[in-house]
Each structure stands twice: as structure tokens, then as C-alpha cells.
Design brief:
The complex is a heterotrimer. Chain A is an all-alpha fold. Chain A contains 1 helix and no strands. Chain C has one domain: Cytochrome C Oxidase, Chain A. In chain C, strands 1-2 form a two-stranded antiparallel ribbon. Chain C is globular, with a radius of gyration of 23 Å. Classes of the chains: A mainly alpha, B alpha+beta, C mainly alpha.
Chain lengths: 47, 155, 546
Amino acid sequence: MDAYRDVAAVKDDGDAPLIGTLRFVFVMGLVFLAGWIGLYLLLRGRW
Amino acid sequence: MHIHRYERWWLGFGVGMLLVFLVLLAIAAFSSDINPPSGLGQIDPTKVAQTAPFDHPGLRKLPNGAYEAYYVAHVFAFEPARLTIPVGAKVTFYVTSSDVVHGFFIPYTDVNMMAIPGWVNQETHTFSTPGHYLLICNEYCGIGHQDMFAKIEVR
Amino acid sequence: MSEARPSPALLAENRLVLAHVYMSTVAICLGALFGVLQGIARSGAFTPPSWFDYYRMLTMHGVLMALIFTTFFITGIAEFVTYRAIPRERSLVVAWLGWWVMLVGTVMAATTILDGNATVLYTFYAPLKASPWFYVGATLLIAGTWFVAFDVFANVNAFRRANPGKPIPLVVYCAAATFVMWIVATLGVVAEMGLLIPWAFGWTSGINVMLTRMLFWYFGHPLVYFWIMGAYVIWYNIIPTLYGGNVFSDGLTRLTFIMLILLSTPVGIHHEFMEPGIASGWKMLFTVTTYGVAIPSFITAFAIFASFELFAIKQGRKGFLATVRALPWNDPTFSGAALGMLLFILGGFGGLVNASYSMDMLVHNTIWIVGHFHVTVGGPVALTFLGASYWLIPKLTGRALWKPELALFQTRLWFFGMLIMSFSMHVAGLLGVPRRTAAVDYAGAAATQAWQPYMLLAAVGGIFLFASIVTFAAVAIGTLRQNDKSASMAVAFATPASSTDTTPALLQSLYRWGLIALVLAVVVYAGPAGDLIRHPGYLAPGMRTW
């Protein structure tokens, strides 16, 4: 049974509750999306 | 290898967002003809002054009402230094360089291209707002790079 | 690494890495001096004296920061992590040879620039013709890095022979992957030098301008990923040890570096979107490949914050704010990397815009681009390296970090200065301010009125940055002369969070990905490069316009 001697503190079967990570990456993603669309409209305006 | 389900959501969002960007860029390109300048014409950089149409830089009106403007970029000025364009004119700029690489950029418009010796680049723009436009070289070309500019007036 | 007296071998390895840190520190301090002088000269606050050659200074700033500071630090940190993670009897001859070749190349390039014979900026675009010794020097700098790369590979091969079937230690895998990508990338610039050096010596009369540009940018973009991968080695493997955290996923980390090996090179034409001679279809293709190379950075954003949150969960905290509060923001090394990561969000956004085909028309060759690379390499990578120096110098010398609170202040000052400078450059770029010009007044043309305040703001940011680098130099020198020699030289790199999650063999292989990357790059470049080779057009005579 030694393979399980050093069971990590975080249980591996279920996914860790990374709510903070989820919120961080999605806020960052939405900032990218909104910013890009803004500049896309600026390009259309200068065409 | 286990991939966390939030990670799968995040990468799904990321890839989806990039696809949205590609679709919007394709719409701009194919329906409104918004493309970066990609002129494929070639010209001998040492004989620009003797090669039509760059032997007479300037504006030329086409039968269909559109315009063509021929520019030569060289160390540290543009030919012609001044150009007047009627309001609403749809102008296609043809640009080449007779020495080093220059930039050909009109701020507040999307006319932004490279003038490369040996090549003719082109970009089309409709000047709907009258006023004084500045044309500048935005690619380092030597000691006078910061003074390399020309004027375009739209009226 | 027991705390007994360090072995002579360890001291010898430390001396080698220290030689890299000395060179990178000198480079960034000098580079920052030239940078602040440029910012002030361009602010319009006054007209600089006539002897002030802006473009010679800009060339020095670019070469010192982008080529010398980064290259010496990345080769140094790669050697350090490889030697410490693979303890064995080894010769340092090849590595020292690499250092000396890099030094000779650096001195050669620097002298030609300083005496005004190479005012061609760090991208040295033909047909501007610099002294041939500038090109030879730059080639030697790159050749020197190949020695270091092969030294790292030699240690990887020795590890594999000694431990058949065992995966390479993660930190070494990341460092070695960085160099696998680097070898594939540098083939482009070496090929370009094969055209430039004979031309600069006058053995050939003309130069194919478009071909040299395509070869340069074949190398130029993976060059920036060489910097980013250098920072990622630190983010993934060293930063977690500062807060007692883990690597989020061993397999995903290796996958990220493999994707960077594959996708760093077949993207270079997004630097050439506004150029003639490349058909629009190829440019659209390179927007797609450049979007591809954004994915490993998306994975990294998730993996790094997940490592933070796993640590917070172990402390019994949950959610975004709790995680942020749980992190050691007063540790100078962590502060450098974390503030760098914040800047990199602005950098990532800018990168997506620049890569987006026709949208590049808004920003190409404007100061937006300068703002962009100051929040990719100038901020995130540089600040990560400066922060890492506060961790590395004690490990190399056994001397405790001198005045850690001053080091912490330095990282925050750099972040603050970079935020101001980069923000003003981004806005000014959208207003049309060009890049790489000594001034932006254009005889008082109407369009330039709106530009002035942003140039002033950028100069203010530059002054904060220069104050920050002076602080860094003080802390570095103070540490090197520190008589408190109690710091431990021992190093432990981050271990994966889950000990039961297995990494597939495919993600443990290394060199094959370099070969696949080379094939992928050739396939993607076949179109545009094929057009150029079929229609080479006219050669341009060389010119010296400064």
C-alpha cells in the first residue's frame, strides 16, 4: 500500500474547488473580448 | 493526465473567443474589403524616378470617379510633399521607396503601410471628413526619420 | 543538498551562473539609462543638444535590453536549474565557452553601435547597412547560446542514461524545451546573417530586402517566446516554492512548453502584415497560427492561479480574494513575478489585437507596439528576472539578500512606472504617434497637438523605471558585498500538486518536438517564402543613412 502513503493533501478524484481561478480567467477573458471588439469597431470607423 | 473541468471550460471559452475574432475579421475582409496592404508589384529601386507612374508622383482621377495617388518615399521626404484630395474621394495609394524601408502612415485613418525598395505597396481609403491630414514615415530610416512627413488636404 | 560546506563543484557552477547574472545586470542598468534618456528627449519638454544621437541610443537600448539582458539571464537560469536539479559530475568547459563567445559577440556589437557604425536599431533591417562587425558580433552572441543549449542537452541525456524510463525533472524539462525552441528559431537569423554579412563586407552588391525581413521575423517572434518561456520556467517551478505551493499539473506544464516549441516559430509574419510582397491569404493564415500560440498562455494563466488557489485551499481559504490575500506579496521575488503577471494581462490583450490581421493597421509601427512589448518583456519578463535575482544571488553566494524591503519597493516602483509608461504609449499609439522617432512635433502639425501629454506621461513612467533600476543595482551590489554569509544555497523546485496523476510518455519526450516544430515552420512558411523565392524581384544596394 506504499503507493498511497503520500496521498496529496488535496483529494484527486473530484476536481479541486478552484472557484477563484475560474472567476479570474473568465474576467480576464471578458476583458480581452470587450477590448478587442472595441478596437474592431474603431477599425471599421477608420476604414 | 487529468484536465480540471474548469480548465476545459476556460480553454473552450478561449478557443471560442478566438473563433469569433476570426469570423469578424473574415466578415471585414470579404464583405467590406478591409485587408492589410499586400501589393505584389515590383519595381527597380534604383530607377524609380524613370519608372511610370512614379516618374510623376501625385493624384490622378480615373474615369470611374475614383482616384489613384502615386507616392515615392525616399530619405527623408515623400514625393509629392503636398496633395489635395476632394472630399469623399476614394483614393488608392501606390507607394514605393527608392532607398531604404520607409513607413507610409496617415494618422486617424487606416492607411498604414510599408514602403519597401523593390516593391509597390497599395492601400485604398475614402476620405469622407475634410481637413488637414499628416502623412508620416513610421519605420526607422535614418538620421532624419523624425522629420519625414508630408501634408494631405481634403476639401 | 545538505547544509555542509558547499563542494568545489557547486562553487564552480555558482561562479558560472554568477557570470551570467553580472552581464545581465550590467546590461539592464545601462539599457535603462539609455531608455530614460530617450523618454526625456522625446517628451518634448525641451530640445536635446545636437550631439545627442537619439538613434544610436535607441539601438543601444534595444540591443542591451532585448538581446543582452534577456539572453544572458535566460542562459544563466537554465544552467542553474539544470545543474541543481541534476546533480552529477560535469565539466563546465562548454558552458564557459558559451559565455565567452556571447561576451565577445556582445562587445563587438556594442562597440560598433557606440562608435556610430551600427545605428540600425536592434532589428537591423536591410538595406540600412551597418558595419559588418555588428552582424558578426550578433551572430557570435547567438552562437554562444548554442553552446549553453548543448550543455543543457548533455545534462538531460546524462540524466536519461542514468535513469532509464524516469521523466526528466520538470524544471529541467521546461528549460531544455526553451532551448529546443531556440535552436529551431535561431536557424532563421543565422540564415539571414548568411545574406547580411557578405553584403556588409561588400562581397555581394545587393540584398533581397523582403527575404531578410522574412528570415528575421521567422526568428524575431520565437525570440520573444524565448523570453516568455524563460519567465514561465520561473513562474511554474520557482514561484510556488515561495509560498509553499505546488505545480498545478506536471503533464499540463510539459504540454504548455511543447505547444510553445511547436507554435512559437510558424507565426512570424504577423510582424509583416503591412508589407508588400506577401499575399493577404498568407497573412490571414498567420493570424490563425498566432492565435494558436495564445493557447499555451491561456493554459498558463489558469495553471498559475490554480497553484495559488490550491495553496489557499490548503490554508482553509476559498475564492478569488481569499487566494490573493493568502499570497506572500511582501516577498520581493514573488512580488516581481506576480506584478509581472498583472502587466502580462495588458500584454496578452495587446498581443491579440496586434495579431488580428487587418486590425494591425490601427497600430502597426505606432508607439502602441512599444507600449505592448513593454508589458510583455519590459514588464513581466524583466520584473520576473529582477525578482528572481533576489532569490538567485543568495543561492549562488550564500550571502543574505541586502535590505529585502528595498528590493520589494524596487519591484513595485518598476510595476508603477511600467504601468504609466505603457498605458500612455498604448493611447498615444491609437492617436497615431509613430514609434522609433527622435521627436513627434512634425513642425507643429495639427495632428500632433493631442500627442504631447502622452509623451510627457511616458517620460514620467521612464523616470520611475530608471529610479527602480538604480534601486535594483544598489540591492544587488549590497547583497554581493554582504558579510552576512548565512543564506542557504540549497534549492528545491516546485513539485506537482497531485502525486497520483500520471504524465503520458509523449509529453515526456523532448527533442522530437523540435523536429516536428521545424517541419511545421517550414510547411507554414512554404507559401509566403515560396512566393518570395519564385519572384525575388530586385536587390537593393546597401545604404548608410545616419
